[in-house]
UniProtKB/TrEMBL annotation, chains A, B:
It comes from Polaribacter marinaquae. Signal peptide: none annotated. Its main location: cytoplasm. It is found in: Cytoplasm. Keywords: Aminoacyl-tRNA synthetase, ATP-binding, Cytoplasm, Ligase, Nucleotide-binding, Protein biosynthesis. Homodimer. Belongs to the class-II aminoacyl-tRNA synthetase family. ProS type 3 subfamily. Gene3D superfamilies: Anticodon-binding domain, Bira Bifunctional Protein, Domain 2, C-terminal domain of ProRS. This is Proline--tRNA ligase. The lineage of its organism: Bacteria, Pseudomonadati, Bacteroidota, Flavobacteriia, Flavobacteriales. Residues 27-295 form the Aminoacyl-transfer RNA synthetases class-II family profile domain. PANTHER family: BIFUNCTIONAL GLUTAMATE_PROLINE--TRNA LIGASE, PROLYL-TRNA SYNTHETASE. The gene is proS. It catalyses: tRNA(Pro) + L-proline + ATP = L-prolyl-tRNA(Pro) + AMP + diphosphate.
Amino acid sequence: MSKHLTKREDDYSKWYNELVVKADLAENSAVRGCMVIKPYGFAIWEKMQAELDRMFKETGHENAYFPLFVPKSLFEAEEKNAEGFAKECAVVTHYRLQNDPDKPGKLRVDPEAKLEEELVVRPTSEAIIWNTYKGWIQSYRDLPLLINQWANVVRWEMRTRLFLRTAEFLWQEGHTAHATKAEAISEAKQMQEVYATFAEQFMAMPVIKGSKSDSERFAGAEDTLTIEALMQDGKALQAGTSHFLGQNFAKAFDVKFTSKEGKQEHVWATSWGVSTRLIGGLIMTHSDDNGLVLPPKLAPIQVVIVPIYKGEEQLEAISEKVNVFVKELRAKGISVKFDNRDTFRPGAKFAEYELKGVPVRIAIGKRDLENGTVEVARRDTLEKQTINQVDVSDFVSNLLEEIQENLFTKAVDFRTANTTSVDTFDEFKEAIKNKGGFVSAHWDGTEETEDKIKEITKATIRCIPNDAKEENGVCVFSGKPSSKRVLFAKAY
Amino acid sequence: MSKHLTKREDDYSKWYNELVVKADLAENSAVRGCMVIKPYGFAIWEKMQAELDRMFKETGHENAYFPLFVPKSLFEAEEKNAEGFAKECAVVTHYRLQNDPDKPGKLRVDPEAKLEEELVVRPTSEAIIWNTYKGWIQSYRDLPLLINQWANVVRWEMRTRLFLRTAEFLWQEGHTAHATKAEAISEAKQMQEVYATFAEQFMAMPVIKGSKSDSERFAGAEDTLTIEALMQDGKALQAGTSHFLGQNFAKAFDVKFTSKEGKQEHVWATSWGVSTRLIGGLIMTHSDDNGLVLPPKLAPIQVVIVPIYKGEEQLEAISEKVNVFVKELRAKGISVKFDNRDTFRPGAKFAEYELKGVPVRIAIGKRDLENGTVEVARRDTLEKQTINQVDVSDFVSNLLEEIQENLFTKAVDFRTANTTSVDTFDEFKEAIKNKGGFVSAHWDGTEETEDKIKEITKATIRCIPNDAKEENGVCVFSGKPSSKRVLFAKAY
């Protein structure tokens, strides 16, 4: 396989697919639509998990684990949720294989081992969890119930892409129960805020916070809050959602509590999730034609040190220096890899770490030893600089912060340059067609208009931004009055 | 639900089931044989995971993620493995539900959405992983491949018990590939050692390291190494296994590498796993008739502080003191909970934390304020002691270590007292029947004898201990010559 990537401007989609595989992040598996997350890709997910988990716990949530399977009778209990997921779910019907009498050495489903009730492999866990909450919630004293689960889920998507849309994916799903509507709404907003903070501060990926229109809402929710990011090809990515579920699941599963006043009331609910899709967003926000670009805060390896040497003796002298850097950097909590493999030449190593997006590369050779210097290269701008050995740990530590900030600033600038405010449908079509990006436009609030705009332009309403100002205008499509601009884009 | 537990001597099995539920560890779900792991139980699993994950990484392993589903054709590729798991696997046959025309509001499997090839929900991942490794391994340079996965697996067990045997459980599975047989064997041994260290140093659960007899070996393995623990009711628990897989999977999936000498050879493999079953072992090793007893190193809450007060003013004065303790203890890395809920009385709180196995409880009331003291109670021995407030952090820190050691010593003593060496089959039967425990006996090495002994006594060979001495003797059952004693027990 060639080390060279297709260029983004030639074929963005091909560039993405090649990058994911060549940077050792993930690959397709023998199971249609399911991916294998390779160690380097999984290490990014582990870093994401660690930060998110910390943020969830800081906001009072605890982890738990609920079954993979949802019995059909529970799955169908909340009607809209069932309708939304029935079309794309994996169904377990049997619990045994047996030798196939017609084909020696082959197995077949044992017809006598048919389940009385089919089991759906969870596409999301509201049903199984709310059926459980029924037993956990009796009184207002049991509320709020603030639970999160890290799990795999399955949605039988027909068109899949590594990380962005896969039949099985990893995610976390928060499921909370509250005594009042106001409290549930405030929880849903809080988690949208947590997601936005994570996206911006750790992924260096700016997001627009908003709520979904009726047609894009989660099946079974009253309101879906979202964070929307803009990818380099001008398409939007829904990066995380937080749902206010009203009393829909409480009613479907009959979950009531006795209030302080002694009244029986249905519980109010939220659910919220982000998934391995975030890795796709991370890639498409920062990476370039040379490969992956990772923000330091989520990079499995933040600094790689490559020795340039001839012979064992030079390597030893270099290693002695490097061990000092490694120690100093690790003392600052920086993850460092010293790549002293003798099976690869420095040039090959440089290319590998560039492809894998390691934020900072340090090279040190014979002349550096003599001069007391090292060469530092940053992945984001590809700039190189020679610095004194005594400055290494401070310099690198500052540089990592600078890279993190620079990536965020660049992404914000890109989004600003690719957000267009339009007032007519011609402008709208032009904007979507020419450069894509976010298009801010007045909309009459109807699903009909939304559908027609989608049909004509492929753009959908990504969200009604939280900070949308009241502004009198007319819908770009129907000309009917509108009081707010919403954000349109083509989307992943 | 009564707070009182059945006593262990009255009904050990009932005591266990009640304890798991009452201590808020787990409960049965709406899905046959699948459990819900509640936040308190899951917090123990998270602690286990963190330590194990660290140990795996320290021994050079990386995490990755492979698909939940195994296509039938891959599942059946390694014949023995397939045979071992075919009888108890969940099979996905369809990918869609539709409205049931006969039952309004109900769903049914869409007969047109039948999969061309059935998918088995992984009972273990050798097949899907070795099919992937085929693409990853070409040369000796790609070896060793040292990978671990944290995942859920499903085995359709007919008789299930919370944590000990459930249809779905959480585990980690390591899957490694090596250039030589010797290296693979040494990896399998290393991981047995890692498991034993974890069991003894963190769970305070002594284990016997050994290998399995042919009949108890993992389906598809050449050799299964095990760690075996003894529960309080005299039954053994297989707590972790590490398999030397030979070239079985490499041959089944045609995974070859080019050696340094340029020859094409099949790869050598291991796999190894521990699961949420460990939580069952933890419970049954230490807990008592009052509830759970947790070793400090795995306790989600190591210290709980309960204020004993009348009125807001006293609580404030106490809280001021407690905040100092909390700060001091946390600075030492100790997890502390200050339970100042006003909805429960101190007695109820004491009972709750006893049931939940919190290692150290500190109580502080009005008189303590006056005397500059607190009352410290340890969960393992139920002893209480009054100490000076200035000593709290040092005292508690030492006490936690002491409790950890004491639990291990007690468990070792129990095992010693419940291990019997026998030379005749009468003695054997007597030992198994009267007190259970481990029975060390000579065995002729045949499966036939093993089966007969099992039929008569229900005891199985738990392992051939690693440290079994060469010793001439005769099989307790057949009288045939034997050179080693093996360990029998009834087992979970």
